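fyi for ur records
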Amino acid sequence: MEPTYPSSLIVDKTGSIFLAGSYLVKAAIGEETDNETLGGATTHNSISGVTDYKMKDDPTCLDTIKKLVGQFGKDPEAGFDRVPSIPPLRKPNDLLGLFPENGLKPYDMTQIMECIVDQGSLLYYKEHYGKSIVCAYARIDGWAVGIVANDRKVFKSGKGEMQMGGVIYSDSADKATRFILNCNQKKIPLVFIQDVTGFMVGTRSEHGGIIKDGAKMVNAVSNSTVPKFTIVVGNSYGAGNYAMCGKAYDPRLIVAWPTAKIAVMGGAQAAKVLTQIQVASLKSKGEAPNDEEEKALFEKISQRYDKQTSAYYAASRLWVDAIIDPRDTRSWISTGIEAANHAPVQKFNVGVIQT
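which gave:
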């Protein structure tokens, strides 16, 4: 029997999940608390990540279940689910104003998605958990899809910790992994929208298991058998490129907007590292540069590196399949799924994932 990856819904104020209720907690360890704080809807959607959807009432919960089931692929057929297409909430031309020109300013990925998906079809997965990655079921030109997208806003986690947009944290990697597994189980094509600067680093992240959680996400992406489509809209740096289904992870199509930048790391950081290496090499030969020479060396390396991160450089080396007009994103994805619909989906076997 194949494994299943069910969705977990919880109704606000009435639903709760915990290993031990408040009375048992007080008896066992002396802690004063209440059942809502221990395991209510807000706790499990914003802090623990145990549940996937927070519903305001029972009717909303039942309607959401209908939407989720309504997007399942048809077994044993090879086809993907499609309904009559509905135009997006926002016009494709809005993309040109919503995405920052230099890609540096924070922006709302939800607004970008609203220019691409069918109006009213977005259904967010674990919306209040791991917020630096947006996961959502949606429809694009009628096709059921699962979207995994980097969000570039600045967030506070459920624990009140600041998180930077475009960075993959342990909670966002865990959320994306579970969502990718769900889409494979339900035979729903995956769309990755990349604007990622990489995984979070540092002592705190390492102690929190960022390697383990990042590996889970890469495992899920690499073992996916449903069609994958990748749109690089901004940054695509380092291991973030891998986790968000870069070229090496066999997307059916990987295309880039003209604003895309693909590299091992950001231009400024890379230029500093390369300059330090060059200066160290010169010093070892007794040719230590002065401050002005070192600055000139940095500028030269930075300009060369910036040129090599551009979407055009990537396309010329087949790192992406095409550079597209952002307004054509919806049609590219729809055509890609239509083509992929003619090939059967292989059995999904993700192997062992360390939890």
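The mean pLDDT is 90. thats all i got for now
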